[in-house]
Amino acid sequence: MVRRWSMSVIDGKKHMKRVGELEVLEQDDAGSIQSSVAAITHLAKRKHISDRVKGVRLGILRHLCILVDCSSVMIEKDLLPSRFISVIKALSLFVDDFFDQNPISQISIITAKDKKTDKLVDFTGSARKHKEFLKAIAEEIPSGEFSLQNSLETANEMLRHMPNHSSREVLVIMGSLSTCDPGDIEESLEILKRNNIRCNFIALSAEMYICKRIAKATNGKYAVIIDEDDLKTLLSVFALPPVATTQLSANLIRMGNSDFRRGLKTRKVGHFVFGIHMKHGEGIGKLTCVGFICPQCNFKYCFVPMECQICGLVLASAPHLARSYQHLYPILPFEEKAIDKQMKKEYFL
């Protein structure tokens, strides 16, 4: 660890001020600094967990829109095998982590290339569906330029209709150091602030002023990765529920406890009827006798949680609701202790 100082001259006198500390990257016996980078990443991850504010209201009902930069700069190979493939792999792991931490939340994925945006997946709580689409776009070739304004406006159109009791969030993963926008991005920023949309950024190259400004203005976070492992660590931080803002309304939400059942019972005891279930965002699905039944309108779905397309009731199972309570009573951070010879004898065979 190295202390960092700044020098200023006031009234002809020099003044030294300590402004922070810098990590030292040390080489191992093989001349590699990978172990030092891994140690710094591990400490940063523990710091994120220990620095979480306790005793505050969290937004556990979230609608997160992920914007993925698919422009030509994502072909660069500073992350192996390429930036684009590394991001897709990291997002596949992030989806599982997100729904583990936020079982009643939903994610949407938008890709941005050729100065345009494309909605890859609409808001849904199915991790399997997200991973299938991510696997499909991994075969595409990034091209064109990235437009930050078009991306944020597309996310705004999807999020502004979400209920006030839900946390509206955007996570932008970008490798571009420039943006090709059709208009004034300051106007887009004001719209995001008016709709209470929180914007977070993960940069793969370097820091951009406009991105950092948007993140600060919308109470979001901005980070620049070190390597592929650091990308996964930063994504795991965004999987945790954020602190709720004052604009987030506190309302009682009607939710339906939808359990997995074998079709709809007929008047004759022991008999079942087949039904067509609704595939979220894809219209009518297959003809089956199993699924999740809405307790209010008896319509059938292939997965939960989701909002019923017929009556608007939020559907969730009992395990989803139970897992949402993990953030009310979180586990305290573990304390790391050095192992001496006596501890090895007592605890290790």
From TrEMBL:
It comes from the Eukaryota. It is found in: Nucleus. Residues 63-238 form the VWFA domain. GO terms for cellular component: transcription factor TFIIH core complex; transcription factor TFIIH holo complex. Transmembrane segments: none annotated. Keywords: DNA damage, DNA repair, Metal-binding, Nucleus, Transcription, Transcription regulation, Zinc, Zinc-finger. A zinc finger (C4-type) spans 294-311. InterPro entries: Ssl1-like, TFIIH_SSL1/p44, VWF_A, vWFA_dom_sf. This is Transcription factor ssl1. The lineage of its organism: Eukaryota, Metazoa, Ecdysozoa, Nematoda, Enoplea.
